[in-house]
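Exercise 7.
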Amino acid sequence: MKPLHKSSKLANVAYDIRGPVLEKARQMEDEGQKIIKLNIGNVAAFGLMPPDEIVQDMIRNLPSTEAAGYTDSKGLFAPRRAIVHYTQQQGVAGVTVDDVYLGNGASELVQMAVMALLNDGDQLLIPSPDFPLYTAVTGLAGGVPVHYRCDESEGWLPDLDDIRAKITPRTRGIVVINPNNPTGALYPNETLLGIIDIAREHGLVILADEIYDKTLFDGVKHTAMASLADDVLFVTFNGLSKNYRSCGYRAGWMVVSGAKRDAKDYIEGLNMLASLRLCANTPGQLAIQTALGGYQSINDLVAPGGRLTRQRDRAYELITAIPGVSCVKPKAALYMFPRLDPKVYPIADDQQFAYELLAEEKVLIVQGTGFNYPTPDHFRLVFLPHVDDLEEAIGRIARFLAGYRKKHAS
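Solution. The predicted structure, written as tokens, is:
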């Protein structure tokens, strides 16, 4: 393959899935070393499997001509209609089947939405810390990612004043990740309404990532952002990957709602990009209607005493027991974003920190700057492993940090 020229748009994309830490992990695994992975929300790798009714429905449909052929570029009618019903349950008004796009996971649809929105030099407001896909596809589209602050002291809520301060004539939209990856925060309606007011004032599109909208702890409730206004344009992303433990099925969807009348050119761009990729994989599409209409087993996992709740609680207890480590307890999603007190852990390069932790203790995490966080004093921890594995992994992290404290205290 001919190497990319340095002027290529890909040359400046921040999200690089390779990196020295992952390369080291692959090398160690090739050598037969066992690594505890706390770096990625790949739920199946931890024994969390899709509901059986989804699996059986896909198996029954696979021999059909429908499963083997192309679909409409936006997707099959039945799952799109099921998604319309789901938006109605959430209180989102005015959504029709034509407003729903099915994709190979939500990630493909995020890229489509950003590519259709931005011209060269346009800006997109993205949270910090972020899910790095948004920063990457903004750069790939020729746009400029502008990161707004999420305030750890306020439970990682977006700083509305910081959002306002960073809007320019080139700003086109605001990304809102709620429930949040990587912090596990869940935003109250007051915060969501504040962001909507800003978008309304400046004519901005809201890109609402709600892929974890059912992965909620302690009885908290999630509000679909698009249910709070109909005079702002919303593009909402969701899918089966997390709530239905179906990452590999690549079954995601995107819903356009709100001020659609003023967005005809943008929607035309979305339709064009949907047509260019022909369609999303059909077997994945066939799982959506069954998933949304079936038993919601995610509720058992996040209930008091449920597996995910137990793992979150134990991980939080252990990580915050380490001297110099603090963490906002997640209300949702599958992650926490602990802070390493810089006075205790004077880390200059958190990627090197993650590399050394992996090499010494065989625990794989992602450094905080990998999520476009500005200072090297955080990391993301995935609490998907069973409690025993979490205890082992966090025990190794504690041992590594004890050595770090001893080394830097002398």
